[in-house]
Specification:
By secondary structure, this protein is of the alpha/beta class. Helix content is 45%, strand content 17%. It has three domains: 114 residues, Gyrase A, domain 2 (2-Layer Sandwich), CATH 3.30.1360.120; 125 residues, Four Helix Bundle (Hemerythrin (Met), subunit A), CATH 1.20.120; 143 residues, P-loop containing nucleotide triphosphate hydrolases (Rossmann fold), CATH 3.40.50. It has 15 helices and eleven strands. The strands form two sheets. Strands 3-4-5-2-1-6 form a six-stranded mixed sheet, covered by helices on one side. The structure holds guanosine-5'-triphosphate and magnesium ion (MG). Magnesium ion binds next to helix 8. Magnesium ion (MG) binds next to helix 8.
Length: 444
């Protein structure tokens, strides 16, 4: 697969719609378009739109009336010539146009290949490429907001100050070792290297902590609604979602399977899971449901334990409170409309009165606002590399504190640096020597 061949794909969802877009990228994009379009696009301006017809040159039939957008290299998404054909959104006509372009010399693009070219041609870094996928797949508004920051290069802005500081130290140590004759470059000492390392370590800790909160914001907080049968768990799910998602009846044991839904609160998105009420039962189906409840609880990041405010707590309630005592949880008293005495966490799912719970959740996750407004690592790959870089740095610090020679300390510093840089570029592309020597003008 050469980078210069011209690729084509249907960029919009293949479904009946007002418009579909068939996109080509590559050095022959304009030439291929010229073979099938009623106007010559050779000398048109970049970022221009052209109305005309798509014709099959062999059969001389018009397939569709279209608008063609032309973007000329290098200032395009892929850094190559791009031609986008905006046709009518019929499935048949869109496919016909694609087939026609393939027959005229374009190659079917692999999944993600347009973005891959943007990356290979140096227009975006690895983190931006990932963010492009993230914005398409974003399950929530928060996730989408995150991805948008990623596309704008926020991860790079996060990483580069760290790598830059680290490279200052690495290059200096390397120079001391390799060119001791350059007496005008001072010899670094442990007393200079260690404070700088501590500084970088502290910054990494902040980034890692934010990243964890970021993952919660992005994926939604996995929240299990738990309680014995009939306390109003499904009613609470429905009240939070403001729709009748789960079946509600006055029969204990109504919910048998997990019922899921998503909501965006002010500070956090919740991935809500309504569960089968926990109790001893001989019913086979209900038993399976209860097993699923327990599995869901193991994976959950937050539990909402629902109690019935109109009844005394019983053994089952106590058992559920005990099961969740070590995790993040909220305990709510539902059916508060049936009693006079209200406490802080009183709600009435039936009446849609759940504001005390929503307020408490927003309060607990108020930090997420900071995360949302600042660059954050976007996914497990990036977080994994940051953790590796952090651990390498800790090893370097430990060695430094023990007074081990700086050239040995530098091995772990360099490892940490490379791990950090791999967040933005594949390891193979990191030219360590080049980066070291670009710092010092040694050719004097
Ligand atoms: N008065 C009052 N009744 C409620 C409230 N919430 C739920 N109920 C009633 O309690 C009964 C059980 O509600 P569900 O939401 O099905 O309870 P559940 O906990 O999901 O029950 P299972 O799925 O069987 O475990 C229904 O008759 C609801 O109308 C409330 O806030 N106030
Ligand atoms: Mg239920």
């Amino acid at each position: 697969m050469s980078l210069t061949d011209t690729i084509v794909a249907i960029s919009t969802a293949l479904d009946e719609a007002a418009i579909s877009i068939v996109r080509m990228s590559g050095s022959e994009a304009v030439e291929i378009a010229n073979k099938v379009f009623s106007k010559d696009l050779t000398d048109v301006k970049s970022f221009s739109a052209h109305y005309g017809q798509i014709k099959d040159p062999l059969e001389d039939v018009v397939l569709d009336e279209v608008i063609v957008n032309v973007f000329k290299a290098p200032k395009t998404y892929t850094c190559e010539d791009i031609v986008e054909i905006n046709c009518h959104g019929g499935i048949v006509v869109t496919k016909q146009i694609l087939t026609l372009l393939l027959s005229q010399g374009a190659r079917m693009a692999e999944p993600g290949e347009f973005t891959q070219r943007a990356f290979l041609n140096g227009r975006i870094d690895l983190a931006q490429a990932e963010a492009t996928l993230d914005i398409i797949e974003a399950p929530s508004e928060h996730a989408s907001q995150f991805a948008a920051m990623g596309i704008a290069g926020s991860v790079k802005r996060l990483i580069e100050p760290l790598t830059s500081k680290m490279m200052d130290v690495i290059a200096h140590i390397e120079t001391n070792i390799d060119y001791p004759e350059y007496t005008d470059i001072e010899q670094l000492t442990h007393e200079q290297v260690l404070p700088l390392s501590y500084e970088i370590k502290d910054e990494m800790e902040v980034i890692l902590k934010r990243a964890q909160t970021g993952q919660i914001v992005k994926e939604g907080l996995k929240t299990v609604i738990l309680g014995k049968p009939n306390v109003g768990k499904s009613s609470l799910l429905n009240a939070l979602l403001e729709e009748d998602k789960a079946i509600v009846t006055d029969i204990a044991g109504t919910t048998r399977d997990l019922v899921e839904g998503w909501i965006r609160l002010e500070n956090v998105s919740l991935h809500l899971i309504d569960t089968a009420g926990l109790r001893e039962t001989e019913d086979v189906v209900e038993k399976i449901g209860i097993d699923r409840t327990k599995e869901a609880l193991e994976k959950a990041q937050l539990a909402i334990v629902v109690l019935d405010a109109s009844e005394q707590l019983d053994e089952q309630d106590e058992m559920i409170l005990d099961m969740t005592k070590d995790m993040d949880r909220f305990v709510v008293y539902n059916k508060s409309d049936l009693v006079d005495k209200n406490n802080e966490m009183s709600i009435s799912a039936m009446l849609g009165d759940v504001s005390s719970l929503v307020d408490a959740i927003n309060k607990k996750y108020q930090d997420t606002q900071v995360v949302l407004n600042n660059p954050t690592l976007a996914n497990e790959r990036q977080i994994g590399l940051m953790k590796q870089a952090y651990e390498s740095l800790l090893r370097a610090i430990e060695a430094g504190e023990m007074g081990i020679e700086l050239d040995l300390v530098n091995i772990d510093l360099t490892a940490s640096y490379t791990q950090l840089r791999s967040i933005l570029s594949p390891q193979g592309e990191i030219n360590l020597l080049g980066e070291i020597f670009s710092r010092f003008c040694l050719g004097k």
